[in-house]
Amino acid sequence: MAKTGTVLTAPETGTEIRPIHQYSEEQIGQIQILQQYAHSLLLPSSDPYHKWELRWLKKADTIPRYIRAAKWIIPDAQKRIKGTLEWRREYKPELIPPDEVKVESETGKIILNGFDKDGRPIIYMRPGRENTGTSPRQLRHLVWWLERAKDMMPPGQESLVIIVDYKSTTLRTNPSISVASKVLTILQQHYVETLGRAIVVNLPFLLNFFYKGIAPFLDPVTRDKMRFNPDLFELIPRSQLDADFDGDYEFEFSHESYWKQVIDHCGIAPDGTRLPGYFDGPISPQPQLEQTTSEDGLIPEVATSDGIQSPSAIEEAEVNEKTSATETESGEVRVTA
C-alpha cells in the first residue's frame, strides 16, 4: 500500500461489530432503574453544562456500560455513575478546546487511527515520542483522545483498543507510576467498559518494573484485557494496521494535517463545543431514527410487539441512534448494529 496521510475514520468494509450485548427482561428493568436514578441527578436546565450532561446520559451505551461494570448490582452502579457525573462536571471532557492540548500532539505520541476486526477504534500510544513535561495537560490530552475515539466508534460499538508501543522509550520519556495510576483511574472509573483491549508491544526488560509498579492499580477486568506482544494480525486487519507493526497501512504523520482531519471529522469547534450538525457526533450517511424525549430528558417507553421494552426505548434518545433491538425466543433482547 502506498504511503498516505489520510486518517482512517471507518472500519474495513464488511466488519461485523462485536461484542453484541444481550439483555434479559430482568436486566432491562435494572437498566431502567439506573436510568431513572441518573436522570434524577441531572443539573438544572439553567446550568450551561446541562445539555452536555444530558447528551452523555442519552447516549445508547452509557447506562448499560455502568450497570454491566457493576455486575448488575444497582447500588454499585448508582455510586459509579454518580461519581462519573461529578467528575465530568469538573473536568468537562467533551468540551476540552483543541488548542489547549494541541502542543501535546505535535510528535504523535498519541494517534487515533484505524479499527480492529471488531470495529473498535485504535489508539496508538508511543511513550518514546514524549515531548512535554508532566502536567495536568497531559492527562487532558489523553482524555481528549478518548472522547475522539468515542466520536469515531461505528454504530453499535462501545469500546476501543489501545496499543502501547515502547519502541525507543527510555526511563526519561516513560510516564511515572503516579501519572499511570491517574490514567488508570480515569479509564477504570469514568470510561467503564470502554477499554476493549490493551496491547503492549516492544516492552524492554528495563521497564518491566513499571508494570509491576502499576499492577496494584489495575482492576481484574482491565488486567484481563491486557496482552503483551500478541499476534496483531489476529486482531487487526492488515489494511487498518500501521506499517510500524508490519501492517499494510503506511501512514505518514504530519501533525497539522492529521490534527485538522480529526477535528473536521468530529466537528469540534475552537472552543471545544460542536459545529452545527455535529452535536451528536460525526455526520453519518447511515439512516437516522427520529426520537423524542420528555421535558425531564427521560426516554418515552416504547414496547416491542410482545410487550418487552428494547434498550433503545430505555436509554437512547439522541438523534443519532446507534443500535436496535429484537427479542429472541428465549426472552432476551439482542442488540445489533
Intertermini distance: 30 Å
The total count of strands amounts to: 8
Helix content: 25-40%
Shape: globular
Low-confidence stretches: 285-337
Radius of gyration from CA coordinates: 20 Å
Report the sheet with the most strands, covering strand number, pairing sense and barrel closure.
Answer: 5 strands, mixed
| Class inferred from helices and paired strands | alpha/beta
Round the mean pLDDT to the nearest integer and report it: 84
Summarize the helix and strand pattern as letters. Answer: EHHHHHEEHEHEHHEHHEE
Side-by-side strand order of the widest sheet: 2-3-4-5-6
The number of helical segments is 11
Proportion of strand residues: 5-15%
Task: Summarize it.
With 337 residues, the protein is α/β, with parallel strands linked by helices. The chain contains 11 helices and 8 strands.
Walkthrough of the structure:
There is one protein chain. This protein has 337 residues and is α/β, with parallel strands linked by helices. The chain is 34% helix and 11% strand. Helix 1 runs parallel beside helix 4 and helix 3 (62-69) crosses helix 4 (74-91). The protein is globular, with a radius of gyration of 20 Å.
Q: Which SSEs are present, and which pair or pack?
A:
Blueprint: E1 22-23, H1 25-40, H2 50-58, H3 62-69, H4 74-91, H5 98-101, E2 110-115, E3 121-125, H6 136-152, E4 160-165, H7 177-190, E5 195-201, H8 208-214, H9 220-224, E6 226-228, H10 255-266, H11 311-315, E7 324-327, E8 333-336
Parallel strand pairs: 3-4, 4-5, 5-6
Antiparallel strand pairs: 1-8, 2-3, 7-8
